[in-house]
Amino acid sequence: MDKINQALLKDNLYQAVNGEWLKTAKIPADHASTGGFMDLNDNIDKQLMADFDDLSAHMDQVNGPLAEFLKLYHLAADFKKRDQDGATPLKPVLERIEHLSNFDELNNELADWIESGLPLPFNFDVDADMKNTSVNALFAGVPSLFLPDKTYYAADNQSAAQLMPIFTQMVQQLLVLADYSGAEAEAIVASAKKFDALIAPNVKSAEESADYSKMYNPRNFAEFAKSTNYLDLTALSQALFNQVPEQVIVTEPKYYDALNDIMNPANFDDMKNWMLVKTINGYSSLLSEEFRQTGSTYGRALSGRKSTTPQKKSAFYLASGVFGQTTGDFYAHKYFGEQAKADVEQMVRNMIAVYKQRLTNNQWLGEATRKKAVLKLDKLELQVGFPDHIDELEYKFKIVPSNQGGSLLTNLDEISRISIQHSFAKLGKPVDRTHWEMSASTVNAYYHPFKNIIVFPAAILQAPFYSLKQSRSQNYGGIGAVIAHEISHAFDNNGSLFDENGNLNNWWTDEDNAHFKQLAQQMIEEFDGIPFAGSKVNGKLTVSENIADAGGLSCAEEAAKNESNYDLYEFFTNWAQVWRTKSTEEYKQLLLNIDVHAPAELRANVQVKNLDDFYDTFNVQVGDGMYLAPDKRVKIW
Q1: Is residue 4 in some structural domain?
Q2: Are residues 302 and 362 in the same domain?
């Protein structure tokens, strides 16, 4: 840990711990930020890229999904071939869209269109039924917008005024690279933007989407099929799923109620041009270097990155994104020790015991709700390190190298088709509760409300979050708070709506629910309107993560205090260190608009103010910057 500014601890914990680091930290040109999570990710990327370079020299000794991963990695890294091919691999895809002249023609190839991964103004997904999470159900979702969020489409939005021209110019340049004339490119993008503008008013903002219980809107499929007069969704369902399900869960009903106004013959050409723009934008990173550089322009403007990802790293990201479990399995077996796994699992059990004690002694929950909360905690499942086996899907991917006629694009198109068919085949089948949503080489963790499970990949189990060389108090301030954060998600404003089996099921009494909402409102108000990066924090957007942070930090502190040699100074200072982050101004603005997490500096500083022990540890008094009056301190779990 860097030198801590002792004089500043009472006024700004984050700056006191991280100030020296912030003075010298440099954001890599291809990054929008640097710091705790990102630095660990970068180190893992370097480790794995070096390892896979070594493995590539011994391809005859590698088999299974790892061999296929290395083939894809080599294909993605062959920029000489990609540059030679130029737009050629993409042209058949663009021509397929160009040749459409009406909805009847689209209808005739609709199932194959979806399995090919081509864009449409609606989409299907198969996931656990939120009210019966043992079985997979059909969901109908909405398309993404050109700008990051519907709030950018307000007439007075200054960010949109800057971003849309950059997006427009970028896509026009991509179309010219694909041999459209300048005039054609201009007309296509203008038309596509008209269609995008039809979608925007009818989809949810990030703040509205943050309440994900509102995703659950089951509709009779026959009624749902009437959402469009121009496509046969019943025949489509039969072709995709070999059945017409009785119901579909519509994530955004307002959008589907407006679908006929968005998708109709009068707008067909605009929709077709929207598809062209979506396609060339999505494929640009798979083509030549000129395509890749041009296609990153808008993303760089959004995030403030100075340059696009270096070629080799981009190839690694692309291949490891496809073979996430394969690369995660390799990382975990090479770098993750059994001693660390056992130690972390013990920390989790300690944290669950703290949580259980708190729920049992809770003063504001009624007995019936309290019993259900304890039951949910008792049924909480834990996964640490890496899955028992690589997902069967990654065994299905077979890469055709360039000397056998394969291109990066044709291989990824086939992988997309296999993945979509694999997902759709799960409809009506039992949910696989052992499936990991995250690679073991990812520096992160998650709680899955549909499964009531917490998952800690191997990659996050390293310093400053966790190390066998750190004190127990430091580990509790790092990985301990992360563990308890994920446990707390089971009882945040979203997770609390799901029962012990992960079903959307109200297990609260009306009185307890009303009290919980009052406490959640206090958390909203604690963060809402805090000035940051020239703007303000949205307390409603970030409330679920803030509730999880508060519960996580509080419970981790109690678990730390249960150790014989606890040191709360070490606990709180390591908590502040794990959030050290330096970001571009553009990236800060983007996250304020769309991220359900509060800015890292505020996560470090605001939550500790809610804990009475923080004041004793650092002798914080009235008038100090870190002081918050006792009646303003938010305590939920």
Answers
A1: no
A2: no
Q: Is 536 strand, coil or helix?
A: strand
Helix (H, G, I), strand (E, B) or coil at 123: strand
Q: Which domain holds residue 135?
A: 103-275+294-307
Residue 91 CB coordination number (10 Å)? 13
Higher confidence at residue 266 or residue 343? Answer: 266
SS3 content of the chain, % helix, strand, coil (to 5): 60, 10, 30
Please tell me the distance from the alpha carbon of residue 27 to that of residue 190, in angstroms, as a whole number: 35
Evaluated on CA atoms 479, 480, 486, 489, the torsion sign reads: negative
When the pLDDT of each residue in the chain is averaged and rounded to a whole number, the result is 95
Helix (H, G, I), strand (E, B) or coil at 81: helix
Does residue 236 fall inside a structural domain? Answer: yes
| Active-site residue set | 486, 549
Q: Does residue 3 belong to any structural domain of this protein? A: no
Tens digit of pLDDT for each residue in 364-402? 999 999 999 999 999 999 999 999 999 999 999 999 999
Split into its structural domains, the chain has a count of 2
Contact indicator for 331, 50 with CB cutoff of 8 Å: no
Q: 248 and 199 in one domain? A: yes
Using CA atoms, how far apart are residues 378 and 392, in angstroms rounded to an integer? 30
CB 579 within 8 A of CB 600: yes
Measured CA distances, 437 to 419, 457, 563 (Å): 14, 10, 33
Picking from 613, 570, 564, the residue whose alpha carbon sits closest to that of residue 467 is: 570
Q: Note the maximum CA span of the chain.
A: 74
In this structure, is residue 6 part of a structural domain?
no
Strand partners, 430: 135
Q: Can you tell me the distance from the alpha carbon of 166 to that of 164, in angstroms, rounded to the nearest whole number?
A: 5
Residue 227 and residue 137 in one domain: yes
pLDDT tens, 603-634? 999 999 999 999 999 999 999 999 999 999 99
β pairing state of 581-583 and 535-536 = unpaired
Q: What angle do CA 179, 78, 290 make, to 5 degrees?
A: 35
Tokens of 142: 């909405």
**CATH number, residue 189:** 1.10.1380.10
Domain of residue 491, CATH code: 3.40.390.10
How many Å apart are CA 517 and CA 520, to the nearest integer? Answer: 5
User: Measured between alpha carbons, how far is residue 475 from residues 57, 572, 583 in Å?
Assistant: 39, 11, 25
- In terms of Cβ atoms closer than 10 Å to its own Cβ (0-12, 13-18, 19+), residue 283 is buried
**Each residue's pLDDT tens digit, 198-219:** 999 999 999 999 988 899 999 9
Same domain, 301 and 348: no
Please give, one letter per residue, the 3-state secondary structure of 20-34.
Answer: HHHHHCCCCCCCCEE
